[in-house]
Amino acid sequence: MTLRSRGNAWLLLLAMALSGSACAAAAAVTIRTESYPRPPYSEATYYVYERDGKVICTKLKICDKYENCDVDYHAGAFLDPLDQRNGDPYDVTAAVAIPPGKRAKHQCLAKLVPDAL
């Protein structure tokens, strides 16, 4: 290996390392859920999308006992007044990171926060 080709190899490795660190520095988008009871025999589930500790969009899914559901999307944080009156959610899941390749499948991100894709 000549000195010139060795230098090119190091430049290539450096470029790959820098591009990898730039990808790693991109903010992670996470999702968590909060569930609230709705009378009679219904449930409201909020899918909360966060980036850098801030809520970027919220998906509200309200289902009845027959699994008929209505879905709404809201930019930023959202909590329906009915659920605010109910108090704390009865079920909360931990935040899970969404891989960049799967973010486009999430309608809340695709419709309201396209820069998160």
From TrEMBL:
Keywords: Signal. PROSITE patterns: PROKAR_LIPOPROTEIN (PS51257). This is Uncharacterized protein. The keyword Signal applies. Residues 1-24 form the signal peptide.
